[in-house]
Fold this sequence. Notes:
Layout: E1 7-10, H1 21-26, H2 32-43, H3 46-53, H4 58-68, H5 73-85, H6 91-102, E2 106-111, H7 115-121, E3 132-135, H8 136-139, H9 146-156, E4 163-167, H10 170-178, E5 182-185, H11 190-201, H12 204-213
Parallel strand pairs: 1-2, 1-4, 2-3, 4-5
Amino acid sequence: MGLKNKAVILDLGNVVLDWNVDRIVGSLGLEKEKGILLRKELFLHQDWLDMDHGTRTEADVISRVCSRSRLSKNTVETALLAAKNSLSLIPETAVLMREISDAGIDMFCLSNMSCETYSHIKGQEIFKLFRGIVISGIERCMKPDEDIYRLTLDRFGLIPGHTIFIDDCISNIEAAERLGISGFHFKRSAACYQAIRNILFGDKKAETAEIEKS
């Protein structure tokens, strides 16, 4: 398969953008018990997945969290804003994405994310490298439901056997592979980035690096 026939689909959280719940909660300066409660009642609760699924709004979730816990509205709102602001670009991924773009390989995004969070981050410059973006909260369908992969393939005219899907969640990878998409389990390590380069570029990057050293 030549480079021109390949397409890459990237997840966002922990692949393109940093995502660390412990760091987010720790940045709020809450007492230990409140931090544990916030993690349980917001970030690890079904409500969070429902926001990603597009079946609950952020305002609805704030109200629900406050109703079932001792957390104030201000605490929950502050946590949500901190979560959005924490989604900063992973430098190593930015380098890789620019290499992919320079090689003429089309890149697409498929992410589980709420409408509100996507609206907050979509202005980041790196998003211009994507030829198309699919967000679960907008589509009301989320990984690993096979329908969202089919939607992505159909919308952008992608051929499963010529498409590589990169995600940090193994269940999402397995769902993609059931449809004939090549999956890559992202682990955010030097070896991981090198493996992706090997798949996409073969020895070309290694040869370029040797030329630049000489």
